[in-house]
Amino acid sequence: MHYQDALAEEIRDSAARLLAEDVGPGDITAELIAEKHWARARVITREDTVLCGVAWVDELFRRLDPRVILHWQAADGDRLSADQVFLELEGPARSLLTGERAALNLLQTLSGTATRTRHYVDLLAGTGVRMLDTRKTLPGLRLAQKYAVSCGGGHNHRIGLYDAFLIKENHIASCGSIAAAVREARDIARDLPVEVEVESFEELDQALEAGADVIMLDNFSLDDLREAVRRTAGRATLEASGNVDDSTLKAIAATGVDCISSGALTKDVKAIDLSMRFLGQDD
Prior knowledge:
By secondary structure, the chain is α/β, with parallel strands linked by helices. It has helices spanning about 5-25, 55-65, 95-125, 140-150, 170-175, 180-190, 200-210, 220-230, 250-255, 265, and strands at about 40-45, 50, 70, 80, 85-90, 130, 165, 195-200, 215-220, 235-240, 260, 275-280.
């Protein structure tokens, strides 16, 4: 399935799951409000953020109640300032309240991913080094978080186990050698990229000799990263991984690697503080 088609399906499925887990057989508290009451509400962010999740919220309210109208004042990928209103809604008060938490849960998580990514991308500005995510995503949110990374200016590593080879220590041990693993990968699917994770210069040389497209330098020191760049001399794309944080990112980029990957973009998510407030109700 094409990525965009898969993402569209994920949006539909996610919206359905969010409503099912929160609403269940019905929102009993919303029944306190008369069914005929119509309301308007605003959603604001309490902190600076990069917005992500518009399509999910649209789909959620479409499923919940098509009478709800959403007026977005920002798009995915936009930077928002603290206390900025970025969405206004109008519709039956019951429906706004029923969908509130499911919508905000999704927005705060994906915006958190996009915001963390943008922070790292900003630190890399001017270096030409690409920031990559990993498969260390929150369960059930793989495509959503991958999309959020792109909204933050980052780049997606492989989406799953099916769209690229990543040969690690246990694969090498099972195949017998790096050369054997790369050779087998080429036989399985010549059109897919082959990446090899290495932990030493000896393994780096073997991966280069085997013709790997990408080589992941796992937990190499800064000096060793520079030496790896020198040895590789452009024969493969070099990806640095491990010990990546605010204090090390620029120094890693300065070694000359092509890209840096970090699971922190998706697994260590700090949810953004968002709030929905009613403006009033009309009969």
